[in-house]
Amino acid sequence: MNPKKAGYLTLALLAVTHLVQANPERPNVVFFLVDDFGWGALSSSGSKFHETPNIDKLAASGMSFTNGYAACTVCSPSRAAILTGCYPGRTHLTDWIDGHKRPFAKLRVPDWNMKMEHERILLPEALKELGYATSFIGKWHLLPINEKELMKDHFPESHGFDQNIGGREWGQPKGRGQYFHPFDMPNVTSKEGDYLTDRLTDYAVDFIDQKQNDPFFLYFSYYTVHWPIEAKPELIKKYEEKLKAGKFNHTKPAYAAMVQSLDESVGRVLDKLKEVGQADNTIVIFTGDNGAVGTNYCGGLRGAKAYSHEGGVREPFFIAGPGIEPGTSDVPVISTDFYPTILDLVSAPLKDEQHEDGVSLKPLLLQTGRLQDRSLFWHYPHYHRTTPYGAIRNGDYKLIEFFEDGALELYNLVEDPAEETNLADTMPEKAAILLEELEQWRTNVEAQLPTPNPNYDPALADQ
Ligand SMILES: [Ca+2]
To answer: What's the domain range around 391?
Structure first.
């Protein structure tokens, strides 16, 4: 071979090598996050009335965690926990933005954080570093609305997303009627009659179309099924007719219609992955940010959104993708685990100093091992439908501590999933061990506690 030709060959080989190094084979990631979605709202999780064939199929195609949890009983902290891999107790982003005011309650809530700090590398930023195209679609609810000048630095584009479709300060569409055009959301165009879930789905499938040759991260954070309960008239009619024809455990046609639109959206995204040949090269995750409003959507659990019991935090929690065989796992897992799990599944090094509270679920997903024993923690020093509380789950047991009076509730969640029998008095040693671990954890993460309220007025406490 002449020297010149050999030189070209070397250069070509170098170029190919460089190309492979710069664009390693990375599976795509699609993350479906549903708002206020109860554990029992899917056909596959017990609803006789709702119809969710696409989500059920997705659940059956991967690993379904039957003890999957949201990190908080309300929106913003759970969302931040997914993106940071840190507990709300650690980031001090402990309530929905901008929370309830209870000036005369027994306890004064701590001065909590209403934004994710830029010092933290978030999940989308970590994926961007790996060459992923990143898209945020839907509800954000992570803007510090009480610090107006800071708001512009905390939209999705400032936290690692290439695009923001629809994310703003709102925790829900603006008001009644706003699941329909006009939406008044960033980068969302619409026309008369457009339905929000469908319109956001248009952007999701467009993103997949555009980025099908790149590794991509689609974070589809639905506004649905948060209030206002509004659905397409033809679907409401369908469920009104269905309701006439039989007896069901759920009985709200408009809610069922919202759930069907959600399911159709998931189906359209999954169909698009198939169409562009990426279905077998995509990790798909489905979960919710907190329990449903109303215990009847929480699958027989106690409580619901904004309460301290299981209905507030137990969520659908499915992960499907390359190498993940269909199955179920009863290992307790939580929102903070998504970040390290995703990095691990795309063969990237973990960032332990970032996702400080999550662990990779890859050994469970690939059925190659188990997790180290650990406890899960919740910290909600705020008033909502509950009074301020902290909680710990270890193995079969969960302890809840209410901060107003130090009351303890201990449950065996395997024998008593509906939390009907408080064991705190009959198993005081177990309660004491868990309480000590909970207190130690709060010290370790520097969680903020409420303090006695000098303006406490029992007559006005609920205002
Ligand atoms: Ca929510």
So the answer is: 378-452
Tokens of 292: 């449903």
Amino acid at 142: L
- Give 131 Cα–ligand 1 centroid separation in angstroms: 30
For 187-196, the pLDDT digits (tens) are 999 999 999 9
Q: Are 62 and 321 in contact (CB under 8 A)?
A: yes
Q: Same structural domain for residues 388 and 360?
A: no
- Judgement on whether residues 366 and 403 belong to the same structural domain of the protein: no
Q: Tell me the C-alpha distance between 377 and 392, whole Å.
A: 5
Instruction: Calculate mean pLDDT across residues 147-157.
Output: 96
How much distance in Å is there from the Cα of 244 to the middle of ligand 1?
31
Q: Do residues 347 and 320 share a domain?
A: yes
Complete DSSP assignment for 43-80: GGGT-SS---HHHHHHHHHSEEETTEE-SSSSHHHHHH
What is the distance in A from the centroid of ligand 1 to the CA of 245? 32
pLDDT tier, 25 (very low <50, low <70, confident <90, very high otherwise): confident
Interval between CA 101 and ligand 1 midpoint (Å): 18
3-state class (DSSP) for residue 25: coil
